[in-house]
Specification:
The complex is a heterodimer of chains A (444) and B (487).
Chain A: H1 2-9, H2 44-49, H3 56-67, H4 75-83, H5 89-93, H6 100-111, H7 117-130, H8 134-149, H9 161-169, E1 184-185, E2 193-197, H10 203-206, H11 208-220, E3 223-226, H12 236-240, H13 244-261, E4 265-268, H14 271-277, H15 280-283, H16 291-300, E5 301-303, H17 304-311, E6 322-326, H18 330-333, H19 340-347, E7 352-354, H20 370-373, H21 375-392, E8 396-398, H22 402-414, E9 420-422, H23 424-443
Helix pairs in contact in A: 3-6, 11-23, 13-16, 17-19, 21-22
Chain B: H1 6-17, E1 22-23, H2 26-29, E2 46-48, H3 53-66, E3 70-73, E4 90-93, E5 100-104, E6 109-112, H4 118-125, E7 130-131, H5 144-150, H6 157-160, E8 167-173, E9 179-183, H7 194-198, E10 207-214, E11 216-217, E12 221-229, H8 232-244, E13 251-256, H9 257-267, E14 277-285, H10 289-302, E15 306-311, H11 315-326, H12 328-331, E16 338-341, E17 344-345, H13 351-365, E18 368-373, E19 379-380, E20 382-386, H14 393-410, H15 429-432, H16 435-448
Parallel strand pairs in B: 2-4, 3-4
Antiparallel strand pairs in B: 1-2, 5-6, 6-10, 7-11, 8-9, 8-10, 12-14, 12-15, 13-14, 13-18, 16-20, 17-19, 18-20
The chains are: A alpha/beta (444), B alpha+beta (487).
């Protein structure tokens, strides 16, 4: 009986293993998927293609089959895995709690960074030589700023289409980068907490104003803000693109810097960075020296909105007369399960009206460097997103993550819509500023 | 007679549907070797994603010329292995054909392509205060074409009926490649009820390319009751007595302790994880009528020592309770790496007796069995949790499942309530039907598909060789030797 059943339906029709098993793909998380398919329609790439290979269940099946040596881990396998945005909407949908992100990250570690040989080389160079070294990043951004402000930009018109599109994605580099005036900035009013702030890699250069606003909002809420000098880039892009060696070194550097600062929480205002830092414990699970430290560090990490909503806003907020809609960054809603807190904070701003868009937690197509590696899919998702935003009639969209902000600004420009794009900390800062201006006028 | 080699066939298919919609590489095909039935799998040789009925017709004609079996697939959420290409062949994946062609609010009907996701139709018709009633657990993902092919049910089918009660007509591509229209929006079309025949035919008679369905008006009000019991028996008795009292709720669902544990971990719907079982009972109708109806139901429940009877206080609370029920099966991955979800039916008066039998079967085989099911319909879903890597485990699981279905049949019930037969239960068809019955069904199949092109190895058991016992013992699913060109 036993042999007859198993010989009946297991080996008979299976694609015969063509090669050896792949130990890097023997991932325990695979066991939790029971193939129910409830993730399919939540996956942006399945929604567009309606192909099983471009769905979470399909990709899990591919990883399982490749791990068993039944299919090759070559180019085609990589294409399917790389078309994934890593938005993790499937994790929200999955009743079994499959940690898809971990499966996909392990697979990308096996297949290496995406793209052509050239773009792989460029990406690897960026991941190992640029992001970990913020000094070099500053130099590069200064050059970019020079390029944008000199007449050189005209030259871009003669570039091939693909490069021209990439060029269009480049945001204008602001005149000033964010440089904190001191490593420790005192709380305003009664001190309620001592917090660390991740300065980040892109944030201080392209979004210096938002870091400055975050510092002001935290201080006004009674937080002593520490911005440790020893910190660096969080390594999220490295992790997502299978460059874990560099990522681990970057994680350790941040862990050391922030644990030494003796803070109650590590505040992150970029959702992608926050999701990665909350999982440093998983990234460093095999490293005995850092296992405990990483767990302690990850437990301290909070998105700025999560932290402020839990702490409770203090001080007078002035009016910000604006109708906005809210885009849930994937790595906040799906990655960190933070959905209510940003909305609570928006609701606390007088004069501001929030109009929800349809599917606010669906990816906008930014997804790290995805808009560069997969421009077509990225734009399809962006156009759909801009339509949803447009339907709300809101003047502005709030998206507390730099990647989403860049993408949505590009989307507004493409759609020729006047929609402004804000970070939540921007608007809170404006509200505090408005209250201060009112008070100033009252005194005068 | 081989009239076309693989290369020629693939080239022709690419001309018909466009190269990106013909998949032939192992890294593209392997994901289509399985649907939501976890116990078997087999890879197709070619996957084609057509965009229109005419393309489906040409693809089927080509497959017929090449002698290659054709298997239709929707979203792949079926639980009987019906979309698994046991004999290899060409898989027609209909997910790209997902347009809602028409919603006629005044006539309360909709015309859809087969790849439309079930819930998208209800969402689109909600603007007119209408909805599409059949609501399988997979409704957020599964396609209407797949629902029709399997005559899918769902929690609210207790009051509204299964898919077949809502299909008015359809366009279907026959095994010849010809396109045919069956049924009509009229209540009583003349001639044979071919639409009725095609519903639940699991892709063995034709490939459905367009469906006309009935839409219903949303009820004025709805009330949802969560009744918590110490034992499955108390819950089962309540169901039997509610039905015996002549009350027909729109839904009456049971979830046992095993499933509740998984659901609570996943969804935090507020199910008490330490109770024996809960019933989710829903009534719909006029606002004034509902409190009285709920009173009567509560009175019956109170005779069976309920721990709690709680009504959902808000739409959000109701939604959460239903989310727990709908995602219950998927959540079982938290408890074991695999499961075998059964689908038996018993007369509702026999519910307590058969549930006790299911528990006894679990004990005998040393297996964990969870239950979440349409109690009001007597439609059981005993779900056996297991780890397929344990030696001998699969055999035990198949054996226990078979004993459960035998218990259902012995109680006067059936081997499937809504999931269909597929490869899973075709041998069990012999428990319900005589060889003469089956022969009549085979003649129907032959009339539609004389060469056996469409979804071979499904639904009907093979002809008995003379002298064989009519009552076949397991193994249940036999897989035919691979036919076609590339064995």
């Amino acid at each position: 009986m036993e042999t007859s059943v198993s010989s009946m339906h297991l080996p008979l029709q299976r694609t015969e293993p063509h090669g050896p098993v792949v130990p890097g793909l023997q991932i325990p998380e695979l066991d939790q998927c029971v193939h129910c398919g409830l993730c399919l329609t939540q996956c942006p790439t399945y929604r567009v293609t309606r192909l099983e290979t471009e769905s979470p269940r399909g990709r899990i099946h591919l990883v399982r089959a490749a791990g068993e040596g039944r299919i090759s881990t070559g180019e085609r396998f990589a294409e399917h895995l790389n078309l994934c945005l890593m938005c993790r909407a499937c994790e929200t949908a999955c009743p079994s709690g499959v940690k898809y992100g971990r499966i996909a990250e392990a697979a990308r570690e096996v297949i290496g960074p995406p793209g052509s040989a050239l773009s792989r080389a460029v990406a690897r160079l960026a991941f190992t030589q640029l992001f970990p070294r913020l000094g070099r990043m500053r130099v590069l951004l200064r050059l970019l700023r020079f390029y944008q402000r000199s007449g050189l930009r005209a030259v871009a018109r003669v570039l091939p289409r693909r490069l021209r599109e990439m060029e269009a994605l480049l945001p204008p580099v602001p005149a000033r980068f964010f440089t904190p005036e001191a490593e420790v900035l005192p709380a305003i009013g009664t001190r309620r907490a001592r917090v660390g702030l991740l300065n980040g890699c892109i944030m201080p250069l392209l979004f210096g104003d938002i870091n400055a606003a975050t510092v002001r909002v935290l201080r006004r809420n009674g937080c002593e803000v520490v911005i440790p000098k020893g910190q660096g880039c969080c390594g999220a892009l490295n992790v997502h693109n299978g460059e874990t060696t560099a990522a681990k070194a970057m994680a350790k550097r941040n862990i050391d810097a922030f644990l030494a600062a003796g803070v109650d929480a590590v505040i992150v205002n970029a959702a992608g960075c926050g999701a990665t830092m909350k999982e440093y414990d998983h990234l460093l699970r095999g490293d005995p020296e850092y296992t405990e430290k990483a767990a302690r560090f990850s437990a301290l990490c909070r998105d700025a909105s999560e932290f402020l909503a839990d702490l409770g806003l203090t001080g007078p907020l002035g009016p910000v007369d604006m109708t906005v809609t809210y885009q849930d960054p994937c790595h906040l809603a799906h990655g960190q399960k933070v959905r209510a807190q940003p909305r609570q904070l928006l609701a606390a701003i007088p004069g501001l009206t929030l109009i929800e868009m349809e599917a606010s937690d669906r990816c906008c197509g930014s997804a790290g460097i995805y808009n560069v590696t997969h421009p077509e899919m990225s734009r399809t998702l962006l156009d759909e997103k801009m339509t949803s935003i447009g339907r709300t009639g809101a003047e502005a969209v709030v998206a507390p993550n730099p990647g989403c902000m860049l993408q949505l600004r590009y989307g507004a420009q493409r759609a020729k819509a006047g929609t402004a794009v804000y970070h939540l900390m921007d608007l809170l800062d404006q509200a505090y500023q408005a209250a201060e201006d009112d008070a100033g006028r009252a005194r005068a | 007679m081989k009239v076309m080699d693989r290369r020629t066939l693939v080239a022709r298919l690419r001309e018909v549907v466009g190269a990106p919609h013909v998949l032939t590489r192992p890294e593209d095909l392997v994901v289509y070797e399985q649907d939501a039935f976890l116990v078997a799998h087999a890879s197709p040789d070619i996957v084609v994603l057509p965009g229109a009925a005419a393309e489906v017709g040409t693809v089927i004609a080509l497959a017929r010329a090449a002698g290659v079996p054709v298997i239709a697939r929707g979203a792949g959420t079926g639980l009987n292995g019906g979309s698994i290409p046991v004999a290899g062949g060409l898989m027609l994946v209909l997910t790209r054909m997902n347009r809602i062609l028409e919603i006629d609010a005044r006539s309360r009907l909709a015309v859809v392509e087969p790849g439309v996701v079930n819930i998208d139709l209800s969402a689109a018709s909600a603007r007119d205060g209408l909805f599409y009633a059949p609501d399988p657990g997979s409704q957020g993902v599964s396609t209407i074409g797949g629902n029709v092919g399997n005559n899918a049910g769902g929690p609210h089918c207790l009051a509204y009926g299964v898919t077949g009660n809502h299909v008015l007509g359809m366009e279907v591509v026959l095994s010849s490649g010809e396109i045919m229209t069956v049924g009509s929006p009229a209540v009583d079309a003349p001639g044979y009820d071919l639409a009725g025949l095609l519903v639940g035919s699991e892709g063995t008679l034709g490939v459905i390319t367009r469906i006309t369905v009935r839409l219903l008006r949303q009820a004025e009000a709805v009330r949802t009751l969560l009744a918590v019991f110490e034992t499955i028996d108390d819950a089962s008795q309540t169901v039997s007595e509610v039905i015996a009292a002549g009350i027909v709720p729109t839904a009456m669902e049971m979830i046992d302790a095993v499933v509740m544990r998984a659901v609570e971990a996943a969804i935090h719907a507020g199910y008490p994880a330490d109770a024996g079982a809960v019933l989710l009972i829903e009534v719909e109708g006029h606002v004034q009528a509902l409190p009285g109806l709920m009173e009567r139901i509560a009175a019956v429940a109170k005779r069976h020592r309920p721990r709690v009877l709680r009504q959902a206080n808000s739409a959000r609370e109701r939604e959460l309770l239903w989310k727990g029920r709908k995602e219950g099966a998927g959540a079982l991955g938290r408890l074991a790496p695999s499961y075998y979800l059964h689908d038996g039916v018993v007369p509702r008066t026999k519910l307590p007796e058969v549930m006790a039998k299911v528990a006894a079967i679990a004990r005998t085989h040393g297996l964990v069995i969870g239950n979440l099911f349409h109690a009001g319909d007597g439609n059981l879903h005993p779900t056996i949790l297991f780890d397929p890597r344990q030696p001998g485990m699969l055999a035990r699981v198949v054996q226990a499942g078979e004993e459960i279905l035998r218990a259902c049949v012995a109680a006067g019930g059936s081997i499937t309530g809504e999931h269909g037969v597929g490869i899973e239960k075709r041998e069990y068809m012999r428990w319900l039907f005589t060889e003469a019955d089956l022969q009549a069904m085979r003649r129907v199949k032959d009339a539609f598909d004389p060469t056996g092109l469409l979804n071979p190895g499904k639904l009907l058991p093979d002809v008995m060789s003379s002298g064989a016992q009519a009552d076949v013992k397991s193994p249940a699913f036999s897989v035919r030797p691979r036919a076609g060109l590339w064995s």
